[in-house]
Fold each of these.
Amino acid sequence: MAKRTAKKTALKVVKKTPAKKASAPKASVAVARGTPLVEMKDISIAFGGIKAVDHASIDLYPGEVVGLLGHNGAGKSTLIKILSGAYKRDVGQIFVDGKEISITNPRDAKANGIETIYQTLALADNVDAAGNLYLGRELKTRLGTLDDVAMEDATRKVMFKLNPNFRRFKEPVSKLSGGQRQSVAIARAIHFNARILIMDEPTAALGPQETAQVGELIKQLKAEGIGIFLISHDLHDVFDLADRLVVMKNGKVVGTAYTKDVTHDEVLGMIIAGKCPKGAIPGPGALRDAA
């Protein structure tokens, strides 16, 4: 009887041991993510002695959308303009695929696969989709004239990939809807091999249907491994589209969180009061951890 009891006890121990290993630390999840697509470390910039961005650090992984939130003047747009080359940082480092890079102008950003889609979209209203896609990078024939056929053919291919229902290739973009104009701006970015997209208020002033269309475009880009920084004042957009969010206040990062780990009210607390909830990782700008 003693032997049988010992045998049963041993079996019980063997069954319990794997259960303990299964609840192993979550650190392995972070390791599995690998190297960030882009990482900004300890970035600062000042204008007239006032720090617009104060030792801010953010990162982005392939196929991820990171929402950047904060009031006007929080520093989010300035931080992103440093990444896009519009501003030159005072201190800090920028890495792409783990390698430190120098960005002093928009050309440097584009050379590293970073494209920006501003709220204004920066489209030439008087030309068509192909004209906007190749604006400043026009294709030419052997005779030196514009190769309109090649540019339109390439535009049709990339637009079909993004928006199969798009048909208005011959019309100036001024006649397109807001969602269609966003499609053209996104097509221009990804056609030239952008791997990192900065989208500034992409759904501002769009109706529900067009907002949904832009949302589908973003999901498609994610599926292709493109990383997206999404600047937005709309919490619903961020919770619908972003995997993670970063909140800034007074030029500093309040905190970073996965959208699934925080509520709308908690994020509002981060934006307004700088309070960092339990589901978020506090940054230098956090007032205190929520109780």
Note: The chain has one domain: 25-289.
Amino acid sequence: MFLTYVGESASTGNNAVDPTQSHQVYTGLFVHESQSISMAGEFNALCRRHFGAPLGEEGAPSEIQPVEVYEGLGYFASWTPEKRNELIQDCLGIMVRRETPVIVSYINESEFAKAKLAGDPSLSVAWETPTEPVVNKFLFAISMFMDELHLSTLSEDQVMDSALPISNFALLVAQTGASVESRFMTEFLLSDDGMDANNLVPNFCFMDAGHSVGTQLSNFCAYFVHRWLQNPERPHPYFDGLRNNKVIQVIYPVNF
């Protein structure tokens, strides 16, 4: 079983033309169940090192939000840039050392609004917000990744004989109160793209980000992908580090 932690950045809901948030990004951080405990232990150790206590206890924030760390907001307003950079590097280092794969999907929200207005045939008539098509693309990308992972474990004889028993599933862990809704999974599995997605557990597991190490790390990935999309010509050392060290593996855009 792979626990696939859903990260997101820049959801604007019905406001699809917000000039400060022109992209909506989703990330899926794949953590095999055998690695989840050690990853959580490493994350808790870095929290003790940086805050003097585990998250949620006195003196520590309830969760690490990427925008607050990067921009020095909220709990991190008094931290120096160097101290905030060290925390970011430690968080990203957990994924880099393990080469934990991350799959990304994103949508340009202003392009969605234009395509919707023009009656673009590539869009479902039921899609009212950019969240719906980008989550649909995201779930398709997760299913494709699981297919490729599965095929890589089979022998040539198994492939030739069409002996393709599923050996691993992905359980998607989404953040409580964020933009992902249970119905998105049902709608995807009933769609043409999702009818063969038999490697996904057919329900999301919802957790509060403060109790989910994987969600917080996946949110870091989504945040830095979003910053890169907003201005790809500028230097983006955190994004480059994730991509060059085999963490961010595939980026799927929603095309119109």
Note: The chain has one domain: 2-253.
